[in-house]
Each structure stands twice: as structure tokens, then as C-alpha cells.
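Practice problem. Given the sequence and the SMILES for magnesium ion, write out the predicted structure.
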Amino acid sequence: MSLLLKHISLPLAHFTLEVDLETHNRVTAIFGPSGAGKTSLLDLIAGLRQAQTAFIQLDDRVLTDTANRRFVPPHQRDIGYVPQDLALFPHLSVRQNLLYGCKAGTATNPLFTFDRVVEVLEIQALIARAVTALSGGEKQRVALARALLASPRLLLLDEPLASLDAPLKAKIIPYLARIRDEFHIPMLYVTHDRLEALALADNIVVMVNGKVLQTGPVLDVFNRPADAGVAKLVGMETIHPGQITEVKEGLVTVKIGHATLTALAPAVAAHEVFACIRGEDVILQQDAAHATSSVRNRLLARIVALRAEGALVRVELDAGFPLHAYITRPACAELALREGENITALIKAPAIHLVPR
Amino acid sequence: MSLLLKHISLPLAHFTLEVDLETHNRVTAIFGPSGAGKTSLLDLIAGLRQAQTAFIQLDDRVLTDTANRRFVPPHQRDIGYVPQDLALFPHLSVRQNLLYGCKAGTATNPLFTFDRVVEVLEIQALIARAVTALSGGEKQRVALARALLASPRLLLLDEPLASLDAPLKAKIIPYLARIRDEFHIPMLYVTHDRLEALALADNIVVMVNGKVLQTGPVLDVFNRPADAGVAKLVGMETIHPGQITEVKEGLVTVKIGHATLTALAPAVAAHEVFACIRGEDVILQQDAAHATSSVRNRLLARIVALRAEGALVRVELDAGFPLHAYITRPACAELALREGENITALIKAPAIHLVPR
Amino acid sequence: ASLTDSLKQIATTYEKQSSDKIIFNFGASSTLARQIAEGAPADIFFSADEAKMDGLEKKGLIDQATRQNRLGNTLVVVIPVGSTLAIKSASDLTNAAIEKIALADTKAVPAGIYAKAWLEKQQLWPAVEPKVVATENVRGALAAVESENAGAGVVYKTDAGISKKVKIAYEVPAMDAPKISYPMALVKESKQPDAGKKFLHYLASEEAGQVFQRFGFILLNDR
Amino acid sequence: MTAEEWQIVWFTAWVSALSTLAILPFGLALAWLLARRDWPGKSIVETLVALPMVMPPVATGLILLNIFGRRGAVGGFLHNTLNFDVIFTWRAVLLALGVMSFPLLVLFARVAFEEVNPRLEQVARTLGASRWRVFLTITLPLAARGIIAGTILAFARALGEFGATIMVAGNIPGKTSTLSLAIFQDVQIGDDSHAFRLLGVSVLLAFIAVWCSQFLLRRKKRTP
Amino acid sequence: MTAEEWQIVWFTAWVSALSTLAILPFGLALAWLLARRDWPGKSIVETLVALPMVMPPVATGLILLNIFGRRGAVGGFLHNTLNFDVIFTWRAVLLALGVMSFPLLVLFARVAFEEVNPRLEQVARTLGASRWRVFLTITLPLAARGIIAGTILAFARALGEFGATIMVAGNIPGKTSTLSLAIFQDVQIGDDSHAFRLLGVSVLLAFIAVWCSQFLLRRKKRTP
Ligand SMILES: Nc1ncnc2c1ncn2[C@@H]1O[C@H](COP(=O)(O)OP(=O)(O)OP(=O)(O)O)[C@@H](O)[C@H]1O
Ligand SMILES: Nc1ncnc2c1ncn2[C@@H]1O[C@H](COP(=O)(O)OP(=O)(O)OP(=O)(O)O)[C@@H](O)[C@H]1O
Ligand SMILES: [Mg+2]
Ligand SMILES: [Mg+2]
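Answer key:
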């Protein structure tokens, strides 16, 4: 997919949504605080809201171009939308809702068959019911199923799993990942949950007050948030792609960048992983050689940057891979850290959380 | 608060909601998969749905008693309800929505004043707006504020923070905790998020298919889930109240039950904490003395019970405090574990996550 | 209104005699006149007053040659059956015991127009007018008397029998009242003028006259 | 326009407005009962309400006359005990207009009430509002669109009512004569130009009513 | 009942039903335009639609007569070119009933369309449904309650219509006489018992219509 948003300008209550964005990725997660303009942006792409100015292009098809008065009507955009308010059709049964966008005979991919979708989302028992008497989570799953069954070329998902329990989420996320991988259906995925973003997204867009604050590959954004606001929003871990080279007694050896670390084995066996390291778990020490310590991972690192963030100081390190540590201001003063100097970073093995990728 | 639910019987689409429950706690969290009957239960307590049979008593006031045809109408129940579907009044402005349940002159507690509520929930800027043009998270906050401003004697919160971003959640949760503590307003809190439950609830009720599967203090339920289903739902950590006795170089000594452990210091300094230990992080070893290992915490423990849960075996231990470990079936066979025998449990210091309480 | 019943009866007999089928359109004369003026298809116009017929004649819509007056009627004063009022002359209508007098519309409905003319002729109209309640038609006037909200009403003799709850208190002598006649004529645009003339002729016959008389009409003899 | 015409216009306007106002509370109450409650005989009442719509207006007028005439059950009682007459007074006009426009109001309001989401009413009650307050502050405003439309239609119907009015109120110039009655008379005597002038006034009144309703609706939209 | 009475009942029932059906598509289209589009002159059209409600029925009848009579613009054209007459035929009845019940249908449907949540229509479009399909499958069914009520009311109004009908169609037994006209005539000639019998039949027809509508609505509720 390549989605191009240019010159977007949509006045909202407190600010104007102004977005210029180009993404060539399979799944783009949209992160942002409540009221940032995420839903408005999806509405715009789906053709449900009219912007003052907008140029929206999906692959080689121009969907909206206010300058040339071009506007592809929503039903010709081939976009599957799960809106935040779900908007199930109250006069139709669950089955009728699901089949509403189903073009007969076009479900060529087995992942998108009625039975498969219904099974993964665990809504078999609801098929004959009225949508008005469903529970919150049931409604959300029906809305997701309805959008999937329309065999879209692009999925817009607005917090699609917000009111589901953990086991159900854990089941649906891999299914969405398969849709992404096997059928190359790109997605824009609004979420407040970093794990969902990590599991599904390649790219991430951080929006605040209608403006894009930061955009880039998920790892870049999670690891190098542009400012404290973004950092708070996306959480304070560094995330690194790595390969497990050895597994022994619940401990694994992971190669990350030029460094090799020891960590606890992930719950699910995998070779390719993301290693998540919370900045708070990274301990910095001046004189690594002299100290006797039980920590497995000792990395010689160079201090790239120091940045104060609230009560903490964020220390950006180059330890063969980019790593950062959060330490208190007094600790920073005691250690007399300075940019360009070398230091030892200590990371306990279990503080490295491995997520299969 | 004491809330007594007896003989509840409400036929739903796929099962009958049958609940007998007595809770004397300040905040009771309701956990359960999608479609478990959580919303139906809250509706029943609020007096919005009529059960076949029900006896509902709040403190010394009988709210519903079908046997004696007693039914206190909803507006005399003094219950603040944030329903899952929010149900904001579309013809009223945000201010008018907020003031709808506000009894003039009754806001004696400063936490419940209009200005305070509006400030904590960050909805100052929305006050004059129409509710129909709010974002999802904004609507949720307005619904919460509206219920709080009615100065209720009991709060029913149905996933009140589901579509909010992490920083906003982190701000609202302590505020709800203060309402709970300072103004003794009990809550029933439906959530899918274990951290929310941990931060707010004393008691937890796990519901599946309309039946209460397990109920008890949060720690009991989180630490000793009744079965694999509950375990999956609530997550697989054991949680223990403890006191930090010593803090040194980012490491702390925590007293849990009769045991003393070493852990990383929590992000926020505290004396009273919850220590969370994931069952997967607990390593079991037959002959502790002979092995040389970097692990800081070695506990001699007695095996209380062994229970197979899917591919794993759940080992319940008494290590001076109740602890459990999840190990693979082959590992269990190799170690030849048997109930009543002794074993050494190894826990790395950083695998103990401390949450201030 | 009594025309309806008598005409229906006459038509039944007539249809048995001839092969023609009579199609009626019953309505207030004013309505019918309007309809014919707007070109509604009709063969014969049977009007309840001269003015309507004159109006159409002036517009050249009816066949003058066929116009004839066969029927006449009498005005009566009716009072509720339970009423003890005695009305011996027109001036009794000014009696204070009679709060309201029901008439058919005095501008549009023939019965009302005639009643007004009668009272004007008696020079009682200015005295009676404030008490007058104009109703849509004769039936309305009768209903008003029935309900006793009008102490008296002036209607056709042929219509007084419609209601069982009223009785005739006074019959207006022929010389006091304006001449009440029912002109009939062929409509010029008629598509079957011959059949129309035939039926007109039958209406003027002795046989039809008897029927009309039975319903309380007076047979006139002008043309 | 002559003074006489002005009088007719005024009388028609206010008696129509008054009859509409008078049926409003009963109409809304009945509509609510039909929309939100189940009770035996509901569909009979439903049909009875629609009757003045189904019957030719003269028949309605005749029935009203039977009831409210001095001989009638209600009319007789009023006359004998209170010396109060309805028939052939402006009160009869009010009665006729009210009865004839009642079904419109009830049916509109009924549909409007049915469209209000009961969940909103429920939640309002948890906020401490009594049934009555919920009705006034939630149900009624949310049904406003339909109720305003129904009210305007009832008013329009009142402006145009003829058959029942003339039966029970007669056409007494300066007392019970309405625009409709005057137009009817003009049409009957062929005074078309006068009829059309009065018709123009009726239409103007209707325009004003429609505009008022749109103004109300637009203000309602802007308020929040 | 006599054969003649049966004929009247049948005629009335089907001509009322037919007129209601005939105005349905136009009524719905106009209602939709009024509810969902803004265009110049909208409030004028709105008032014009309500006119047959505001004017005394005779006046409406007279205007129709003016237009469709042989001397009228439309009627003259039809008569001269196609030798097709409207006035005094059953077509005139249809015309009168249609014109008189049109405002009811339009206003009901309009309010019903306005109450449909546009978000549902939008989402339906993202699911690949054309504007037209959305109208048929989302807007129309969601507005069904109001539309059914409006249709029933239009039908009831048609059953009871008198003033305009007698003007344009006359009261021709066996041809244009409807229940309403027949009842009027019976009342005129004082045959009250017969009038009440026919009135009973009207009421029965209205009952049937109301019951049908409730059946439809209830089925609609049960379907999903
Ligand atoms: N129709 C509208 N007109 C004007 N302002 C609007 C409209 N809809 C939403 N807004 C405002 O625009 C801002 C962005 O709204 P939007 O729904 O896009 O937020 P969001 O990022 O989806 O938030 P959330 O996470 O709470 O759903 C909010 O402040 C909202 O109040
Ligand atoms: N009015 C109703 N009639 C019959 N069944 C209903 C009704 N409302 C909900 N249900 C069913 O009852 C079950 C419980 O619904 P409820 O809304 O209480 O679930 P929940 O626990 O709140 O789920 P969620 O987390 O998805 O909101 C669901 O299977 C739902 O489909
Ligand atoms: Mg949103
Ligand atoms: Mg729920």
C-alpha cells in the first residue's frame, strides 16, 4: 500500500486537523491522546467527512482532490471501516449486518470466508440475534466482521479491540496479522495499546491536537519519542529486533545489533523476536570492571545524548544498538554523566522482555 | 458498603444470569469475557432491567425484592451509572449533560465540585460544546463526570476508561482512588485491564456465562485463579502485599509474608507495595545448595498442589507466602515433582515488579 | 334533499319502461352549477332554485328551450317535538322564547335564500337576523332544531319529515312566501340530448308527478 | 381588507391556535401512553382516535351535535346545571377544530415518542430524575421534531376544517364564521375573487405557522 | 348489506388504497428531499404541500375542477387530445383522495427520515452500497415506523374525504360514490340508520388498516 495524504485541512472545534503524511507500509498505527483527531482523519479517508482542502491518494488512485474537485464516493473506495461508534444497523439481524457489504462470489481468500471470520471472532452463536441486544464486546466484533467481509482493499480500524478481554484480543490480533501478511490488506489502526501496535504495525503516526507530532517505523518512534509527551503516550521501553541464537534452561542468547544479551526465554518459542527493555530497568555504572554484580548483561556504551524529562533524565546510549535508560536526576548528578563519554549499562536478563515477531 | 445480591435470575440470550454475591468492600472489580453478563448485572443493580427473581440490598436498604414486590425506582437509588454505551443526552450541551444529575447545594465534598471534576477529566474546553460532536474518549469522560456530579452513594462503572490513552488513565485512576478513600463512595468497576483492577479494587468478581466463577479479594483471585480460564482472563502473575524494608542502589528488600526478597526499586518510592511475580519467571530447582547461580532470591518452598493447565503445569507453592510457578510438562516430569515435597524456587530480582499500594 | 328519494324512485320506474340508464349526481345546487360551469359532463340539470339555473343560462350552458318548472315547495317553521311554542304567524319568530333560528345558508342554499326572502317580505328580517344561525344546508338546520339549540328552524315542507324529533309548527302560506320552484333543463354540452329530452319529458308526466306529490312537493304548471 | 374580513381572519387564527394548544396536553399524554405502555384495548383506542379522520366531517359534526346539543348527554348537563351552551358559539368552533385535529397530533407525537431511545430515559433516571422530569427534559425535547410537526399540522387542519364546524357552530358572521366557512360560502355563491382573497390569507397563515415551526426547530438545533 | 352497499364499500376501499399507493413514491421522494437536502424555495414547497390541509376541501375541489375540468388547462388538453375525461369518473375520486392525503404522508415521512441517524447511512456506503441501495436498505426501513403511520393516516384520510371528492367527482351512485359521500347523502335525507351502518363499515375499514399497520410494525420488530 501507499497512502498519500497532502494539504489536509479540516477545522475542528479546538484546532484544525492538518496532516501531510505518506506511508508505504502494510499497517500504520495511529497513536494519540483522546481528542487528537484520529477518528476525524479516518472519516476523511473513508470519504465520510469533507475537508476544506485535501488530497488523498491510495496506491495510484486519487480518492479526494479538492483542488481538482475530485471526490470518489464512499461506496467506490473499497475501504472497510470499523468506526469507533460501530454503527451497526439496528433493524437488521447479526447475519444481515455481516452480509451487508458481502459481494457475492468475491470471497476468494479463505481467510475472508463467512465461516472463518465468524469463527475467529467467536460470533457463531450470535448470528441469528438482533444486534440491539448484544453486549458491548459482541457489537465490536460484529462491526469488525462486517468490515472484513466486505473484502476491502484498505482497512480503517478505530480502536477495534477496545472493549474486549485479553484472551479474545490475543486470539484476534494474530488473525489480523495474517490478513495483513497473507492478503496484503493494508490497515490504518487507531489504538491506545502499545502491544497491539507492536504486534500489528510497521509504521506509527503520533497525533496531538490535529498535527502529526512524529511518524516513522514503530521501533523508531517507540525507542526515540520526539518529546516527553510522545514518550508518555507510547510508553518508556526501547524495542529492538533481534535473533535468538541459543536457548538454554529457560535462558536465551539474543543478538541485538552488534551486542549479544542473555534473556529469559519467551513464552512462545521463536527465532525472530523484539526485545523490549524498559528504560527504568537499565542501570548505569561508572566502573564496570571493579564492581562485582550478579547482572548477566554488561554492555559498554557511549552516551549519545542526555535529556531531562520531568523528574527523570533520559540517557540515550549506543551499546552496539540504540538503548536508553531512565535514571533519577540525583543519580545523573552523582555519576557526572556527560555526552560522548563511555559508561557500563547493566541489564538483568529477566528485564529483557522478548516478543515473537 | 455492603452490597448483597441474592437469588438473581435473569434469562439472557444464551444463558441465565444467576448471581449470589455479597461484597463488603469499597471497590469490587468485575472481570469477565465479552458477553459474560457484566453489563446486564449493572443494569439490574441500577434498576434499569427487571429480573425474574432478585433480591438486591445496598447497606441496609432493600432496592429490589421480587418476592415481596419491592422495587425502588431508579431515581431513588442514589446510584451513579456510567453505562457502556454512555447514553449522553444528544439534545443537551456538555454543560447541561454534566449538570443534569447535579443536586443544587449538595456538593459538600470538594472532590465532587463541578470545577474539580471537570479539571481532572480534562473536559474544561468542551463545556460549551454539543455532545454529538465529541470524540469517543471525550464522550466517555463526559459520561463519567456526569455520574460523579450526581453525588451518588454507589458508582457503577462499565469500562469507564476503555477508550482513553495511557497518560489520561494514569491521571484518572488515582482520582477515582481518592474518591474511594476519602469519600467512601463504593464502586462496582467493570474492566478488562488488570492494572486498573489492581489500582482500584479490593474485591474481584470473575463472571463467565452469567455465573460467578470466583470471587474474593483481588490478590486471592489474581494469585489463585479457580481454573485455567480465570487464569487466562486475569493474567498469570501472583501478587502479594509487602513492605519495603531497605533500599540500596536501585534494589530494595521486600518483606512478603515470612519471606524476604530482593527486587528492583519501584519507579515511585513507596513503603507499602504489591509485589507481582509472573508464574513463568519462577524457576524451580531440585538441589539448591549445589547449584551456583546468579539469582538473588532463593526460596525453600513446599509444593501445595500441582495442576495441569494446557501445555503448562501450575505449581502452587508455600514459600512463606503463597507463590506459584508455571513450568512446562517435560520440566515437571524431569523434576519429578510431587505434592508435599520441598523444592527451591528461584526468582531474579528484576522479575519482581513492585506496584505502590 | 327530498328530490333524491323521489328521483330515485322515478328513475327505477323509468328504467323499466325504457332502455335508458339514468345516472344521477346528487349534490347541492350550487355545487352542481359550479360543476357544470367548469365543463363537467352532464345531460340534465335539476336545480333547487331559479338563480342557479339563471346563472347557467346566462353563460349559455343550458338549452333554453327545454327549461321547465314542474315542482314547487312550501316553507315551514319547525320546532323540537317537545316544544310547546305556538307559532301562528311569521312575527312569532321574534318571540324572545326563541333564542336562535336555524336556516340553511341564506346566501348560497336555496332553502335559506327563500326563507330570508320570506322574512324580508314580512319585514321581520332585521328583527330576526341576529338570531339566525346559518347552517350548511337543510339537514344542518334540522339538526340544530333537533338538538334544541335552535328554538325554531325554517325548512322545506318536504324536508321537515327527515327528522322525527321536530314537528311542523307553522306552514308558510303560498302568498306570503316567494315562489319556490325547481327548474330543470337540458345541458347544452350533453352527449345524448335525445335521451335527455325523453327523460325530461317523463319527469313532466303525470306518473312522475304523483311520485313527487307523494313526497310533499307541489306540482306547478308553468311551462 | 374590510373590517369584517379582518375579524374573520383574527377569529380563525386565534381559535385555531387555541384549539391546537388545548388538545396539546391530552394529545401528548395519549400519544405517550400509546407509545410507551401496553394496556388492554390499546388498539381500540388507537382506532377511535383516528375516527374523526375516517368519518366524513358531517358525520363527526352530527355526533358532536348529538352529544353537546341541549338534548345531548354532555350538552344537556351543561345547559341545565351551568346554563352553559356550546353549540352555535365560538366554543363549538373550538370543539370541532379540536376534535378534527386531535388524531393528527396524537399520531405524530406517538411516532415521535416511539423513536426516542429508552436508554437515554433510563440513564436520566439513574441521575435522580423522576419519571415526570425525564418526560419533560428528555423524552419531550427529543421528540420535539415530530411534536412540532404534528402541532403545525393540527393547526393547519384547524384552519381548513369546515364540515364539522358548520354542523356544530353554524356560520354566524362575526361570531362563529371562520375563514373556511367564509370561503365555502363565497365558493357556493360564485364569488370566486373574494374566495381567493380569503384563501390567500389562509395560505399566509399556514406559511407563518410553517416558518415558526422551522424557526423553532432550527433554534433547537443550535441551542446545545 | 345490499349489493349496492357492497359496491360502495369495495369501491371506497380500493380507491382509497390505490390513491395511497399512488402517492407513496412521490410522497417519499419529496419527503426525503425535504429532510435531507437544502435547496432554494424549500420552505415554499413545504407550505404548498401543506395547502390541501389548510384550505377548506371545497376550495381544493374547486381548484382541481378548474384544472381538470374540460375548460381547465390539464383537463382540456386530456379531453381534446386523448378524449380522456377525469371529472365525474373514478379517476377524479382518485385524484381528490390523493391530493387530500398527500400532505399527511409527506410530513410524516419527512419527520421519519430526519430521525434516521446519518452515521448509519455513511457506514453503509463504506460497505459498498450505492446511495440508492442505502436508501432502500437503511433509510427506508429505519424510517418505516413513521412511514407506515403516515400511510395509514393517508389511507384513513382518503376514507373520510368528502368535500373535494364531491366537487370533482360528484356523487354518482355506482360510479363515484364513496362511503363518505353515501354517508353524507344518508344524513341529508335523514336515513340515519343507514348512515350509521355505513359509518360502521368505515370504522371497520379503519380498524383493519390500523391492525395491518401494527402487524407490519410488530413483524418488523421480530424479523432480526
Ligand atoms: N463534527 C465535529 N465538528 C467539530 N469538532 C469536532 C467534530 N467531531 C469531533 N470534533 C472535535 O475534534 C477533535 C478530534 O476529534 P476526533 O473524534 O477525531 O478525536 P479522536 O482522536 O478520535 O479521539 P478519541 O481517542 O477520544 O476517539 C475533538 O476535540 C472533537 O471534540
Ligand atoms: N436485552 C437482552 N436480551 C437478551 N440477551 C441479551 C440482552 N442484552 C444482552 N444480552 C446477551 O446477554 C449476554 C450478556 O450481555 P452483557 O451485555 O451483560 O455482557 P457483558 O459482560 O457486558 O459483555 P461485554 O464485555 O462485551 O460488554 C450476551 O451474550 C448478550 O448477547
Ligand atoms: Mg476517536
Ligand atoms: Mg458490557
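Check your answer against the key. The longest strand of chain C covers residues 62-72.
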